Amino acid sequence: TEKQLTRNLERGKMFRKNLFRAQEALNLALDNLVAQKKETEEHVRVLRALLDISQMLFACRSAKELFPLILGVLHSDLGFERILLFGRETRKESLDLVAFQGHYRLSDKDLHELLVEKKGIVGHVLDSRLPYLCNDTRKDSRYVPDEFGTLSELVVPIVAREFLWGVLVAISPVENAFTHRDQEVLVLVAGFMAVVLENIANMEMLSRELGHMRLLHDVVSEIALLRDRKLIAERVVELLKKNFQYTHVTFFEIEDEETGACRTIASTGYSEKEFALRDAKRRRSGGGLVELAARTKTLRNTPDVRFSEMYVSTIQETRSELDVPIMY
Fold first, then answer.
1. How far apart are CA 325 and CA 146, in angstroms?
2. What pTM was computed for the model?
3. Positive or negative CA dihedral for 39, 42, 48, 53?
4. How far apart are CA 287 and CA 259, in angstroms?
5. 116-174, pLDDT tens digit by residue?
6. Alpha-carbon gap, residue 245 to 299, rounded angstroms
């Protein structure tokens, strides 16, 4: 009987031990299940936010509207507390800080170092055009210290067809603040943005082309029946001014093809008496860009007349000049 009692006690201990092990395994399985549930919920939340982002982005009609919208969603829906966007509204513009969320200040000197001299992690991404995740800036030689005390930095380029539209930059004063999932999310968002910015640029280009076609139609329709050269010039000047918002448009008549000598027969905002005064001033100074274009029979585009030795100032506010020979 004593042996049986001892065996029963041993069996009881073993049973309790196995029961504890089973309970621990059950608790571990439950913890894993809860973690998986949270991860799944987080994944679903991110996917929903990305879907919302894609819908909102493709409804945008301008980059100016797009930039603050995207940062707002990244901040409020996806949990990026401090995020900056360096970008451009058109292909011709230089990169600049176009939007940001959270307290962060950059001086003109800081912007020049990042975007022109291409220093720091941002500068590295501008060159490489590849995402970069740094979770301890103290150990990264590329990092340039800032007043915010950044310890984690995630930078993702916005690239479409090899053209760099900008970079998204997430920063944090906390070490190991970002995960590879955060990087994947920003890469997806940057991809959405690149497509939208390309679409906006293409729509603007198409709009300009349609404007050109409408102008050509108007010019042909309105001057086809005219026979007087002066009337034709006046109407062309009026249409160019109306359709392209040029500051001044002037139509010159060639007097000597070899020298390029010409005279004004139509211009916006000036009387015929003023035509003669401006022509005389230009001739005294060698004819300027106008007569150079006429003499060489080539288009002359001068983005900044201050750097042109041939430019003759007849209109004080002129900064850019386009001279187009009319040839047939």
1. 54
2. 0.57
3. negative
4. 9
5. 999 999 999 999 999 999 999 999 999 998 888 899 999 999 999 889 999 999 999 99
6. 20
